[in-house]
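Structure tokens please, single chain.
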Amino acid sequence: MIEDDLHIFGKLYYWDIFKCIPFLLAHLPDQAHLEFQPVPLPDSEVHQIYSGINTGDGLWDTQDQLPTGATIVPVICASNKTPLTNLSGDKHAWLQNLTIGNIRKDIRGTPTKPAWILVCLIPCPLKGAKNIDQAWHSTVGTVLSQLTYLDITGPGLKWDCADGFQRQCYPLLAAWVGDCPEHVMVAHVSSGSCPMCEIPNGGLMGHSTFRPLDNSRDQHIHSELLEDNTLDALHTLGVHPIRNQFWQYPLCNVCPPLAA
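Here you go.
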């Protein structure tokens, strides 16, 4: 049951993600499509080409912060609220799916390849409810709670891989796939605010010179404002006066890299 001190959001049905992730790592049909370390991808002029999560600078930076021999397992989640009925009850299903960045992106995006796993059905509050963000974050926090206990300085998790080897794996939340309303909930900003930068509500779209949001910086600022109960300042920033669930995940950036 997903609830807080004031609301009951509904029943939650979900899979253990520490069974789903090893399943994807050891899935034999994907044996030739798995990558276990960041790879350089230069062009003919030795310029870096960015074509997937394993070629990005973020994965290289993360690898440097982990023990020698560590294998990063980038956890990619996706969520979407899907209407089931129209004009007859307004029923919805809110799905959360999971895959890993070790599987090549062209395989992950192929409908005939089982690279995504449905890990939970997010409870849908009644139409017009004001606690949708709390329901969403409570659900995500429950489903992904095991990722918060990962010790990035420890030995990791010993998991079997499809190539027959056993590796010391570090599953880290790396990206969230969704539309704009989903990204707004990930960043925990108010409706109409930008989840990517500090452009004011109603500002012109297009190239922006406003400062991008940054988890390592903004988490500290927002936490201090919450502790001081300075709610007006948070509302001015367009941020909900509640701790963001994603602050507790190691080496996770709530802002642009996560809302990818």
